[in-house]
Amino acid sequence: MRVDMITLFPEMFAGVFGDSIIKRAVDKGILDIHFTNFRDFALDKHHQVDDSPFGGGSGMVLKPEPLFRAVRYVKETTAECKSRRVLLMDPGGAAFHQEKAKSLAQYEQLVFICGHYEGFDARITEHLADEAVSIGDYVLTGGELPAMVIVDAVSRMLPGVLGSEESAPTDSFYEGLLEFPQYTRPREYKGMQVPEILFSGDHGKIREWRRRQSLRITKENRPDLLKKANLTEADRAYLASLGSGKECPDSFR
What we know:
Blueprint: E1 2-7, H1 14-17, H2 20-27, E2 32-37, E3 50-51, E4 61-62, H3 64-77, E5 84-95, H4 98-104, E6 109-113, E7 119-120, H5 122-127, E8 131-134, H6 144-155, E9 188-189, E10 192-193, H7 203-221, H8 233-241
Parallel strand pairs: 1-2, 1-6, 4-7, 5-6, 5-8
Antiparallel strand pairs: 3-4, 9-10
Protein backbone atom coordinates (compact mmCIF):
# COMPACT_ATOMS: atom_id res chain seq x y z
CA MET A 1 0.00 0.00 0.00
CA ARG A 2 1.16 3.52 -0.80
CA VAL A 3 0.35 6.21 1.79
CA ASP A 4 0.58 9.92 0.95
CA MET A 5 0.50 12.55 3.68
CA ILE A 6 -0.40 16.05 2.52
CA THR A 7 0.69 18.17 5.45
CA LEU A 8 2.40 21.38 6.53
CA PHE A 9 4.46 19.46 9.11
CA PRO A 10 5.96 16.29 7.60
CA GLU A 11 8.57 16.15 10.37
CA MET A 12 5.83 15.27 12.89
CA PHE A 13 5.59 11.75 11.47
CA ALA A 14 9.23 10.76 11.99
CA GLY A 15 8.86 9.25 15.46
CA VAL A 16 5.71 7.22 14.82
CA PHE A 17 6.58 5.99 11.34
CA GLY A 18 10.27 5.53 12.11
CA ASP A 19 9.85 2.83 14.77
CA SER A 20 8.09 -0.39 15.63
CA ILE A 21 5.59 -2.19 13.38
CA ILE A 22 5.13 0.58 10.80
CA LYS A 23 8.90 0.88 10.27
CA ARG A 24 9.15 -2.89 9.78
CA ALA A 25 6.29 -2.75 7.27
CA VAL A 26 8.13 -0.02 5.36
CA ASP A 27 11.38 -1.99 5.48
CA LYS A 28 9.55 -5.05 4.10
CA GLY A 29 8.06 -3.01 1.26
CA ILE A 30 4.48 -3.56 2.48
CA LEU A 31 3.99 0.16 3.16
CA ASP A 32 5.36 2.97 1.01
CA ILE A 33 4.92 6.31 2.80
CA HIS A 34 5.41 9.71 1.14
CA PHE A 35 5.01 13.30 2.31
CA THR A 36 3.90 16.37 0.37
CA ASN A 37 4.04 19.81 1.96
CA PHE A 38 1.15 21.72 0.46
CA ARG A 39 2.83 25.05 1.25
CA ASP A 40 5.03 24.25 -1.76
CA PHE A 41 1.88 24.57 -3.90
CA ALA A 42 1.00 28.09 -2.75
CA LEU A 43 2.07 30.24 -5.69
CA ASP A 44 2.08 33.71 -4.10
CA LYS A 45 5.38 35.16 -2.93
CA HIS A 46 4.60 34.51 0.75
CA HIS A 47 3.45 30.91 0.16
CA GLN A 48 0.24 31.65 2.04
CA VAL A 49 -1.98 28.62 2.67
CA ASP A 50 -4.66 30.22 4.86
CA ASP A 51 -6.77 33.35 5.01
CA SER A 52 -9.46 34.97 7.15
CA PRO A 53 -13.00 33.57 6.76
CA PHE A 54 -15.61 35.30 4.64
CA GLY A 55 -18.43 36.61 6.82
CA GLY A 56 -16.09 37.32 9.72
CA GLY A 57 -15.02 35.21 12.66
CA SER A 58 -11.87 34.24 14.49
CA GLY A 59 -9.05 32.10 13.22
CA MET A 60 -7.76 31.33 9.76
CA VAL A 61 -9.17 28.97 7.12
CA LEU A 62 -7.08 26.83 4.79
CA LYS A 63 -7.31 28.03 1.18
CA PRO A 64 -8.44 25.65 -1.57
CA GLU A 65 -5.79 26.34 -4.23
CA PRO A 66 -2.68 24.85 -2.52
CA LEU A 67 -4.51 21.70 -1.44
CA PHE A 68 -6.17 21.12 -4.82
CA ARG A 69 -2.79 21.51 -6.52
CA ALA A 70 -1.07 19.21 -4.02
CA VAL A 71 -3.66 16.43 -4.39
CA ARG A 72 -3.56 16.75 -8.19
CA TYR A 73 0.23 16.43 -8.08
CA VAL A 74 0.03 13.27 -5.96
CA LYS A 75 -2.57 11.72 -8.23
CA GLU A 76 -0.62 12.52 -11.39
CA THR A 77 2.61 11.08 -10.00
CA THR A 78 0.89 7.89 -8.80
CA ALA A 79 -1.33 7.24 -11.80
CA GLU A 80 -0.38 3.54 -11.66
CA CYS A 81 -2.42 3.08 -8.46
CA LYS A 82 -5.69 1.48 -9.53
CA SER A 83 -7.61 2.11 -6.30
CA ARG A 84 -7.25 5.26 -4.24
CA ARG A 85 -9.07 6.97 -1.36
CA VAL A 86 -8.55 10.62 -0.42
CA LEU A 87 -9.27 11.18 3.27
CA LEU A 88 -9.75 14.54 4.96
CA MET A 89 -8.85 14.55 8.67
CA ASP A 90 -11.74 16.51 10.16
CA PRO A 91 -13.46 16.36 13.61
CA GLY A 92 -16.74 16.82 11.74
CA GLY A 93 -16.20 13.72 9.63
CA ALA A 94 -17.57 10.21 9.98
CA ALA A 95 -16.32 8.25 12.98
CA PHE A 96 -13.33 5.97 12.36
CA HIS A 97 -13.73 2.38 13.61
CA GLN A 98 -12.38 -1.11 13.01
CA GLU A 99 -14.69 -1.86 10.08
CA LYS A 100 -13.47 1.31 8.39
CA ALA A 101 -9.86 0.18 8.96
CA LYS A 102 -10.60 -3.15 7.26
CA SER A 103 -12.32 -1.34 4.38
CA LEU A 104 -9.45 1.10 3.83
CA ALA A 105 -6.95 -1.77 3.85
CA GLN A 106 -8.38 -2.86 0.47
CA TYR A 107 -7.06 0.22 -1.36
CA GLU A 108 -3.71 0.43 -3.12
CA GLN A 109 -3.28 4.07 -2.07
CA LEU A 110 -4.53 6.25 0.76
CA VAL A 111 -4.09 10.03 0.56
CA PHE A 112 -4.46 11.93 3.84
CA ILE A 113 -5.18 15.67 3.89
CA CYS A 114 -3.99 17.02 7.24
CA GLY A 115 -5.23 20.48 8.13
CA HIS A 116 -4.39 23.09 10.74
CA TYR A 117 -5.75 26.41 11.96
CA GLU A 118 -9.51 27.01 12.09
CA GLY A 119 -10.49 24.53 9.39
CA PHE A 120 -10.82 24.00 5.65
CA ASP A 121 -12.50 25.97 2.93
CA ALA A 122 -15.70 23.95 2.40
CA ARG A 123 -14.85 23.34 -1.27
CA ILE A 124 -12.01 21.09 -0.09
CA THR A 125 -14.45 18.98 1.90
CA GLU A 126 -17.10 18.89 -0.82
CA HIS A 127 -15.03 18.49 -3.98
CA LEU A 128 -11.49 17.31 -3.17
CA ALA A 129 -11.76 14.59 -0.52
CA ASP A 130 -13.60 11.32 -1.02
CA GLU A 131 -14.65 11.45 2.62
CA ALA A 132 -13.95 13.26 5.89
CA VAL A 133 -12.93 11.09 8.86
CA SER A 134 -12.77 11.77 12.60
CA ILE A 135 -11.07 9.66 15.27
CA GLY A 136 -13.21 11.04 18.11
CA ASP A 137 -15.47 13.73 19.44
CA TYR A 138 -12.74 16.22 20.27
CA VAL A 139 -10.62 18.79 18.44
CA LEU A 140 -6.85 18.47 17.95
CA THR A 141 -4.32 21.03 16.79
CA GLY A 142 -4.08 19.44 13.36
CA GLY A 143 -4.81 16.39 11.26
CA GLU A 144 -1.39 14.76 11.57
CA LEU A 145 -2.12 12.79 14.76
CA PRO A 146 -5.44 11.37 13.46
CA ALA A 147 -3.69 10.38 10.21
CA MET A 148 -1.04 8.50 12.20
CA VAL A 149 -3.73 6.67 14.17
CA ILE A 150 -5.55 5.61 11.01
CA VAL A 151 -2.37 4.43 9.25
CA ASP A 152 -1.43 2.39 12.32
CA ALA A 153 -4.87 0.75 12.48
CA VAL A 154 -5.06 0.09 8.72
CA SER A 155 -1.52 -1.27 8.46
CA ARG A 156 -2.37 -4.02 10.95
CA MET A 157 -4.89 -5.34 8.42
CA LEU A 158 -2.26 -5.79 5.69
CA PRO A 159 -0.83 -9.30 5.18
CA GLY A 160 2.69 -9.64 6.52
CA VAL A 161 2.68 -6.56 8.77
CA LEU A 162 2.09 -8.35 12.07
CA GLY A 163 4.32 -11.13 13.32
CA SER A 164 1.41 -13.59 13.35
CA GLU A 165 -1.46 -13.77 10.87
CA GLU A 166 -3.72 -14.55 13.86
CA SER A 167 -2.88 -11.32 15.68
CA ALA A 168 -5.30 -8.94 13.93
CA PRO A 169 -8.41 -11.18 14.13
CA THR A 170 -7.99 -11.40 17.92
CA ASP A 171 -7.71 -7.63 18.41
CA SER A 172 -10.43 -5.73 20.20
CA PHE A 173 -13.19 -4.53 17.80
CA TYR A 174 -12.09 -6.85 14.95
CA GLU A 175 -15.29 -8.90 15.35
CA GLY A 176 -17.23 -6.17 17.12
CA LEU A 177 -16.22 -7.19 20.65
CA LEU A 178 -13.50 -6.16 23.09
CA GLU A 179 -10.56 -8.52 23.41
CA PHE A 180 -10.45 -11.30 26.01
CA PRO A 181 -7.86 -11.16 28.87
CA GLN A 182 -4.34 -12.35 28.06
CA TYR A 183 -1.85 -13.94 30.49
CA THR A 184 1.79 -15.03 30.41
CA ARG A 185 4.46 -16.24 32.86
CA PRO A 186 4.61 -16.40 35.82
CA ARG A 187 1.58 -18.58 36.52
CA GLU A 188 1.21 -17.02 39.96
CA TYR A 189 2.27 -13.51 40.97
CA LYS A 190 1.72 -12.14 44.48
CA GLY A 191 -1.21 -14.47 44.97
CA MET A 192 -2.79 -13.57 41.62
CA GLN A 193 -3.43 -16.74 39.63
CA VAL A 194 -3.83 -17.36 35.92
CA PRO A 195 -7.20 -19.07 35.19
CA GLU A 196 -6.80 -22.86 35.30
CA ILE A 197 -8.66 -23.43 32.05
CA LEU A 198 -5.73 -21.94 30.10
CA PHE A 199 -3.63 -24.92 31.19
CA SER A 200 -6.27 -27.54 30.33
CA GLY A 201 -4.97 -28.27 26.84
CA ASP A 202 -8.59 -28.33 25.64
CA HIS A 203 -8.50 -25.75 22.84
CA GLY A 204 -12.26 -25.89 22.33
CA LYS A 205 -12.92 -24.96 25.95
CA ILE A 206 -10.23 -22.28 25.83
CA ARG A 207 -11.88 -20.72 22.74
CA GLU A 208 -15.23 -20.82 24.52
CA TRP A 209 -13.74 -19.22 27.64
CA ARG A 210 -12.14 -16.47 25.58
CA ARG A 211 -15.34 -15.79 23.70
CA ARG A 212 -17.29 -15.50 26.93
CA GLN A 213 -14.67 -13.22 28.43
CA SER A 214 -14.94 -10.97 25.38
CA LEU A 215 -18.71 -10.90 25.76
CA ARG A 216 -18.50 -10.14 29.49
CA ILE A 217 -15.93 -7.37 29.11
CA THR A 218 -17.83 -5.81 26.20
CA LYS A 219 -21.06 -5.84 28.18
CA GLU A 220 -19.35 -4.21 31.15
CA ASN A 221 -17.31 -1.59 29.29
CA ARG A 222 -18.92 -1.02 25.87
CA PRO A 223 -22.47 -2.44 25.84
CA ASP A 224 -23.24 -0.30 22.79
CA LEU A 225 -21.01 -2.59 20.70
CA LEU A 226 -23.26 -5.59 21.35
CA LYS A 227 -26.02 -4.04 19.25
CA LYS A 228 -23.92 -4.47 16.10
CA ALA A 229 -21.86 -7.55 17.02
CA ASN A 230 -22.42 -10.85 15.19
CA LEU A 231 -23.77 -12.91 18.12
CA THR A 232 -24.76 -16.54 18.19
CA GLU A 233 -27.65 -17.94 20.22
CA ALA A 234 -25.09 -19.27 22.71
CA ASP A 235 -23.62 -15.76 22.99
CA ARG A 236 -27.03 -14.27 23.68
CA ALA A 237 -27.81 -16.91 26.28
CA TYR A 238 -24.52 -16.25 28.05
CA LEU A 239 -25.09 -12.49 28.04
CA ALA A 240 -28.57 -13.03 29.46
CA SER A 241 -27.08 -15.11 32.27
CA LEU A 242 -24.72 -12.37 33.41
CA GLY A 243 -26.02 -10.75 36.54
CA SER A 244 -28.97 -13.13 36.72
CA GLY A 245 -27.50 -15.44 39.32
CA LYS A 246 -27.24 -18.19 36.73
CA GLU A 247 -23.76 -17.49 35.46
CA CYS A 248 -21.46 -20.13 34.05
CA PRO A 249 -19.14 -22.19 36.30
CA ASP A 250 -15.98 -20.59 37.70
CA SER A 251 -13.86 -22.38 35.11
CA PHE A 252 -15.48 -20.26 32.41
CA ARG A 253 -15.18 -16.91 34.14
